[in-house]
C-alpha cells in the first residue's frame, strides 16, 4: 500500500500478488489490487477483484465505494449509485461515498436528490473542503436566481479557507464574483493570489480575463497545464455534472455527415484529447487513433479509458508542425478556446492533414459582425464568425462550414459555441 500511495504501481502490483500467493483470497490485497488494475486501464479485472473481496468482507464500505468509483469512471452510473448506497449502508458516516453519491445523482439529472445529498454531505463533514466546493459548483451550474450565485461565493470561500491547496475553489470564487458583476472583487481575488504566488500562471491569466491586464494572444502553456493537471481527477465528473456538455457528440455527428461509413481505415488525431471522451466516437473510423494533450494528468486518464493507439503529451501547435500530412481527420473539442490568435494553430492543422482531410473543432462565440477575439471571465477566448472565417482562409482551408450550437452550460446558462468544419483541398500544392 505504501508503494501504491507513492504511485510506484509496478512495485505495488508485484507485492499485492505476492500477498495473494502467500494467502489466497486475502480481501485487502484483492481490493487494492482491483483499484490498481483500474488505474492501469484494466477496469474489468479491477471489478472482478473487488467483487471477490466483497464476497469475503461484504460490509467493507471502502471496497463498495471504490467499486462504485470504477463504475462511475467507466460511465456506469446506475451501478455506481448502487455501490455508493451499499457503502453508506455499511458505513453511514462514509462521507466520500456520500460525496460520490451526490455526484452520480447529479450526473443522472436527479437534481433535487443531488442537492439533498450535497446538503447531507456538508452536515456529515462540515470541514470537508471538497464538499463545499462541489456544492458551490452545483449552485452555480444550476442557478435559478442571483441568490444561488451568491451562495456559491460563500461555498467557494469556505472551501478555500478549509483547504488553501484547493485552487479550483479560488478560481471559481473569482468566476462567481464576476458573474455577479463584482468585477473589481473578482480581480482582487486574483491579485491577492498572485501576491502570494508571484509565479503562479492561473491568477496571472485570470486577472487578464477580468480585464485587469492586457489579454495574451493565447493562454500560457503553464496556465493550461496547471489548470488541467489539477483538474484531471475530477474532469469527467465535472463534465458529467455539467449536463449541457456535448461537444464530442456534436463534432462527431458533423464528421459523420461528410465521412464515408466507418471502416477503420483513417488516421485520426484527437487534438486536445483530455481524458479521452472523443475516443469511442472516433474509434470506428480509425485505422490509427492518436491523442495529444498538454496536460500529462489528462493523458493518463485517457490512457486508462483506452481506445487510442498512441497518446502524446505535447503543445498542440508544435506537435502538428512535427507531423506533416499525417492525418485524414483532425478533431479538436473545446481546446482552441484556449487560443486567442488562431492563425498558427490552424496553419499547422492544415499542414498536418493530408489532401482532402477534414478538420472539425469548437469555439465559443463572440457577438458582432467585426473581426475580433475576446478573453472571457471564464479564462477562455471567444471569436467572431468573421475572425474565424478569415484565419481559416489564410491557413488554406476550403469548404468551410460554421454553425452555432449549445455545447455546454455555465452558471446555469447555455454557452453558445461555433461548430466549425473545414477541408484541406484534395489537390496537393507542390
TrEMBL record:
The keyword Iron does not apply. PROSITE patterns: TPR. Keywords: TPR repeat. TPR repeats lie at residues 61-94. Gene3D superfamilies: Tetratricopeptide repeat domain (1.25.40.10), Vaccinia Virus protein VP39 (3.40.50.150). Pfam families: Methyltransf_23, TPR_16, TPR_19. Transmembrane segments: none annotated. The keyword Transmembrane helix does not apply. InterPro entries: SAM-dependent_MTases_sf (IPR029063), TPR-like_helical_dom_sf (IPR011990), TPR_rpt (IPR019734). CDD domains: AdoMet_MTases. This is Tetratricopeptide repeat protein. It comes from Dyella humi.
